[in-house]
Amino acid sequence: GDSVKGPSESAEIVRQLKSLASALGIPVIVLSSIGGTMEGRRLQRPTIGDFNTAIAQHADIVACIFRGGLRPAGVDGAIDIAHVFVVKNLRGKTGSVALRYFREYSSFLP
What are the CA-CA distances from residue 25 to residues 12, 20, 28, 50, 108 (Å)? Predict the structure, then answer.
């Protein structure tokens, strides 16, 4: 499909999604990758500044899944740990939680 052309088009899409969510009374989840923006940082974890400005400005909640220190598939006894960081929450707290990632099921559990 067509790609987003620039910041103003991206901002318009985010505003339309937020309007749709409000009109229908439902949450809308937008997925975004943040690429290699964390490389070179001392503390390699996502922050609100890693996201598109439109997402950072208009979203009510921004949460990130970070899986650092990935292990090769098939390593016996290896436990993959993922961290979910809530970096923006207009109606509550921000923070993080560690979860176990089960690669074979593509699932996260506490």
Answer: 20, 8, 10, 28, 28
Q: Which residues pair with 98 in a beta bridge?
A: 83
pTM > 0.85? no
**Torsions phi, psi for 37 (to 5 deg):** -65, -20
Please tell me the chain's helix, strand, coil percentages from 3-state DSSP, rounded to the nearest 5.
25, 25, 50
Helix (H/G/I), strand (E/B), else coil: 108: strand
Type of residue numbered 70 = L
List the structure tokens of 70. Answer: 């990935």
Q: How many residues does the chain have?
A: 110
| HSE, side-chain direction, 13 A CA sphere, residue 42 | 0
Spatial distance between the Cα atoms of 53 and 7, rounded to a whole number of angstroms: 8
Look at 95 and 50; give whichever has higher pLDDT.
Answer: 95
Phi, psi of 55 (to 5 degrees): -65, -45
